[in-house]
Design brief:
Elements lengths: L1 H20 L11 H4 L11 H13 L9 E2 L8 H13 L6 H4 L1 H17 L6 E5 L2 H16 L3 H4 L5 E6 L5 H8 L7 E4 L9 H13 L3 E8 L11 H11 L2 E6 L23 E5 L11 E5 L2 H8 L29 H35 L4 E3 L7 E6 L4 H10 L4 E7 L2 E7 L7 H16 L13
Parallel strand pairs: 1-11, 3-4, 3-5, 5-6, 6-7
Antiparallel strand pairs: 2-8, 7-8, 9-10, 10-12, 11-12
Helix pairs in contact: 1-3, 4-13, 6-13, 7-9, 7-12, 10-11, 13-15
Length: 462
């Protein structure tokens, strides 16, 4: 074990040094992958030298999500304290389904969940769990809503024409999860949004009323706290009024930006959250923990238990249900994702989490100010978002982003809204400063300036 830990330290140091010198790894085209790297598996063991060299090549060729030039996804950067927690979780290798095998790590998870419930204003008997990602958090919320609407579905299956509602700008997991739970993709109503990407409450109420008149059974509304493209926040109080009127479960998907619960300055963006039946957020996004660290809480502990508990005499042999977390989880075997967040939270306090969140909005403000002051840019996004959407010199966003990636200049993605395509800069890496944000724009400008015929797409053909 000590020998392998020494190898890990050696490779980690190589990676950190390489990240400093080359923040973007040269991408390997998928058609060249098996020629560039020896990732084959054979019957005979690899020699020690070849084994080490192969791992080094693999690690150094992998996209670098922790550097100051990675803006491509809704996560980025590397928080050392959270990484420490994740490494310790790997060494301990506990599974979180019973207190017998997880011990005090169960307390770690419960403390986080209860603290989150307290922060958002849920009652003392609320509860939650760690899910394997934001998609599965949404799945769990939808499943609880289905069973709360009709508890017999768990045993008899879906026999009604159930319908659910979500923003047209919401996460793609919603229709996928509707298929998983037996409701069906075609029964998902994608509600129109306003110019800022927020669900229009009047359209929601109108569609629910229409469905009821046509014999459907509405049961679930999904609100979004940070849409994937514009970073928009749905109006929770307005949606809550409609859900109460029609007795529907309201879930707030805060996978992207739900961590604003920790910020005094920005928690107004999720005003009314305490009225929602369930809420989820990803600490591996705004809080910067390693993937994955997804939390879902509900004010209805009964429904969490009713939807996910199942007797298993071979497993639950000691301690009560409150400490056997497998009773309220979608999984049986489950890694300890709570420890990385607990180590971070313990080290910086709730005040430190607030600073992490606030810094991202500060960086977004810097980016928007730069765009507004430069006539070569067009801004598509708005204040109170950490998604900064823009175009540069009318260059097609997909063309620009792909060229930057293939030439190992920057990693940044693109998105669309209202038939407009644009570059989407996400200021989620809190290790960045104003310097890195301004360097991002300078890198684009320098790259484009290198080729006066940049708008011709022939040089960027696949």
């Amino acid at each position: 074990m000590l020998k392998d830990l020494a190898l890990f330290n050696k490779i980690a140091n190589l990676l950190l040094k390489s990240e400093e010198e080359h923040p973007i790894a040269n991408p390997i085209p998928p058609e060249d992958l098996y020629d560039k790297l020896d990732i084959s598996l054979g019957a005979a063991p690899a020699s020690e030298t070849f084994f080490e060299k192969t791992i080094e090549d693999l690690i150094l060729s992998t996209p670098r999500t922790a550097t100051k030039l990675f803006f491509n996804q809704l996560f980025g950067g590397r928080n050392s304290k959270a990484t420490l927690g994740d490494l310790l979780a790997v060494l301990l290798n506990n599974s979180m389904y019973t207190y017998k095998v997880a011990g005090p790590q169960v307390g770690i998870e419960k403390e986080i969940l209860h603290k989150v419930c307290d922060i958002i204003g849920y009652p003392k008997d609320s509860d939650g769990t760690f899910a394997p990602g934001g998609s599965m958090s949404n799945f769990m919320a939808m499943l609880m809503a289905r069973d709360a609407y009709n508890s017999s579905i768990k045993t008899e299956g879906v026999t009604q024409k159930l319908t659910l509602y979500t923003s047209a700008e919401s996460h793609y997991s919603i229709p996928k999860n509707a298929a998983f739970i037996g409701v069906g993709r075609e029964q998902v109503r994608h509600i129109e949004t306003n110019k800022n990407g927020q669900m229009i409450s009047e359209k929601l109420e109108s569609k629910i009323t229409e469905d009821l008149a046509n014999g459907f059974h509405p049961f679930f509304v999904n609100a979004t706290a940070g849409t994937t493209v514009l970073g928009a926040f749905d109006d929770i109080p307005l949606l809550s009024l409609i859900c109460r009127k029609f007795n529907l479960w309201l879930h707030v998907d805060g996978a992207y930006c739900g961590s604003v619960i920790f910020s005094s300055k920005y928690k107004h963006l999720i005003t009314g959250l305490e009225q929602a039946d369930s809420f989820s957020f990803n600490a591996h996004k705004m809080l910067g923990t390693p993937l994955t660290c997804s939390i879902i809480v509900t004010k209805h502990k009964k429904h969490l238990y009713d939807s996910f508990s199942n007797d298993a005499a071979y497993l639950y042999q000691t301690d009560g249900d409150d400490y056997n977390l497998g009773k309220t989880s979608i999984q049986c075997g489950r890694r300890n994702d709570a420890l990385k967040l607990w180590v971070l939270w313990k080290s910086v306090g709730t005040e430190g989490l607030e600073k992490i969140v606030d810094h991202q909005f500060y960086l977004a403000k810097i980016a928007r100010s730069y765009i507004k002051s430069n006539p070569d840019y067009t801004l598509y996004s708005f204040d109170d978002s950490i998604s900064v959407c823009f175009n540069y010199k009318n260059i097609p966003a997909q063309t620009l982003c792909t060229a930057l990636y293939k030439n190992a200049e920057l990693m940044v993605g693109f998105g669309t809204f209202n038939n407009e395509e644009f570059v989407r800069l996400v200021t989620i890496n809190t290790k960045n400063t104003e310097k890195e944000i301004l360097a991002f724009f300078k890198a684009i400008e320098k790259f484009v300036a290198k080729d006066p015929a940049f708008q011709g797409t022939e040089v960027f053909e696949q």
